[in-house]
């Protein structure tokens, strides 16, 4: 053992012993779960009549305007066979219209809930129903931290974020393109990303969607990891696909969707809606369009392989009236998310929705004000898979180290929130008041001693000390504490064990695939 | 006109002209209201059975443990006459028990909704039902800003916060003890506080509750302002009273409550519950106790003057398991607030609940993360009067200039949130998509042009610009922008007109009252 390793081991022991030591003494231990079972009701914004009007508008969009498909004749063939009315607009561009109800009918074979398996079976997650899964943010080209500012993401950043995710008990899923590893050629980076998820995390993850062959590589790596038979029978990877709003599905996307579905793997179908730019400014219309696009994209999977796991998705953003920039974490988008939750349940499909969105360029008051506005809507609307739960800054352009740990801490608080309020003889605590009576503090009552370890969420980042103590300790803000924390977590990180034969198999596959292709940088 | 005045007038004109000029061009103009009419449903956490169990526990607390009353024989007499079972514990200390249902019966005469009149009739507010009123934070001994740090509050700070409140369209009420003006003797500061609310704001406000004669002074000043007859017939002032938890009402409090009620004025009845210290750690028990204490305190008003306006109240806080300090903006407290909303509606009483709570000592990420966790519960639970809507920092010990303007901006966003999501032919926006079809941006559609001024909340403090623009402009965080903003708002502030005769009357009353008393500093 090297000196550095010994130091690390000692730290780990100290950490595990923790304050109070003993099995259950770790703060928040009672809240740890592989995924959350939501025990709070959904917050249902709209009445039946309004929901029906939105659904009818979605149907009308598909029947009268239709969706445009590009450069994927096989997808067009599948939809034509299913009853879609196909018009060829030009070579490789088709408009397809669907009679009201047709898409819903196709979606009947999609599961309302499914398991995505992790390589550590204890970390497999449920997606759908009352299950809730938090995953890191996805797709930023830049990364940020307080020391080095904003810069392009690298594979080292990518690995760091996988490690930070793995080290947080409040995320359940390793995510996908946590940041773009821009130092790796575009046509090869998916191999390094999938490998990083497998090597540095033992949770479920997302694969590549940027080209059908990269989707296939991602799935092939899972066959090495899980065995081909297991992969054929079970969902072990998902792809996160974007429509090209308004109302377009390009061929790379539909071919990727078909690749995941054919392999029996999961897929998420997201219209990225920016009101006024690619969807109506008014949220009712944006939600109707979201439903139309996501349903249609989901339906493709069922034509390829009925029963393939599929996730409806919603990403509502708004627009700054001053600059035309997209805005995140706004009240209108939060309302849109609440409605999407209702619509997903009526379709009986799992939902991906919202996350800790913000436009802020720093982990400051704006960042968390917008983040909570957005995230509470995800939690309350009944979303099942909440991508962008950690790290989102700068309108999704930057992944922030500090915000990542601030967000995961919030995710911990949301574990407590989603447990709901338990009403029982014990929690009603009549005895606690009766024991000493009016005017007496309850610190020493049997009820307090029985509950004090589990009654309240204990944040790792909030400073809840008296002002004097806080001031004596340097008067830090949360961003500064977060900066220290991510460094400590990375320093203490331990990779989960991985079978050497599998590791060699993965490395061999990656080497072979990289050898086969010249580097491409676009 | 002095040079300074001329400069100020020019600034005002520029401001009013604003971007785009013209009547409705001011951002968010469509959201301005004297109070909010909530168009979103309440978020109902618990089922009927759980609510009944909480109510039964509250009844059992009052029947088997009882409330303790101190040093106010008149209040004891009133409750005895109403059927309370009185036991004298010692000289001036009584325990009173109430049969299940008795307190609810007494509360039947309390209005479910009432108007609190402002000196500017356009600013009168409704309290109860679907009406929602935001008021500044209340009761901090310290004030903070980024330039001068933490210090004791003064009457100058108090006036500044009244002015900042008045200048925000997103607050509806001037509040009460916005901060303690510690440079004025304790027995005289109520006169200066009430005068500041009257002079520097034309909204409704809260009066003194720290002694019955100070309550009487506050009401007397309203008689000078509104006329004695008007005050006798209408609610023009409210007192915000705290029980002494657990289960005690001291004589200063009950005498103050009787003073407001006898004058037909409003009162708010708040148990300040810190779980594990003065209420059970488990939230179900804390909520049951809150209901028992607040109901009983409210009931006193109806014994004094049936029909007196009264507000049930809830302030749930939790405890740091490490330090024993009270914690604010925690998930458990948010759940407690949601349940209090349900219980208040079942009692048919207006509710004061939560606010922008936090333990943070700076206007940072923690401040707004905790603030939103708390504030969203207030907005969603159906609370009617939300004190602590602006400025709350440092576990209520400090009033922050920066957080005040950050919070009022959030209050603006909540105006948009509480409008809900409108579903109509127009907002469904089918035409917006049909106009140009798939793949085409919607910037120029008739639908976009028709809605762009009113579709989205436009924050005065969020930086939603691209990173490059933000960076070029200095790369500020929200706290820094807030620091500039409160100074600008104070600089631009104009006092609303006040009749000179009334002003002289108030000044004369204050001078006379101050002359009658020696300074007291405790």
Care to describe what's here?
The structure is a homodimer of 522-residue chains. In chain A, the strands form five sheets. In chain A, strands 10, 12, 13, 14, 15 and 16 form a six-stranded mixed sheet that branches. In chain A, strands 3-4-2-11 form a four-stranded mixed sheet. A four-stranded mixed sheet of chain A has the order 9-8-19-18. Helices cover 45% and strands 14% of the residues of chain A. In chain A, helix 6 (189-200) packs parallel to helix 7 (212-226) and helix 7 packs parallel to helix 9 (251-262). In chain A, strand 5 and strand 6 form a beta hairpin. The first copy, chain A, is α/β, with parallel strands linked by helices. Chain A is built from 19 helices and 19 strands. The longest helix of chain A has 22 residues, at 283-304. Chain A has one domain (33-420, 463-522): TIM Barrel (Alpha-Beta Barrel), CATH 3.20.20.480. Chain A is globular and about 80 Å long. Mean pLDDT of chain A is 95; it is low at 8-24. The interface between A and B is large, with 129 and 129 residues. Chains A, B: GO terms for molecular function: methyltransferase activity.
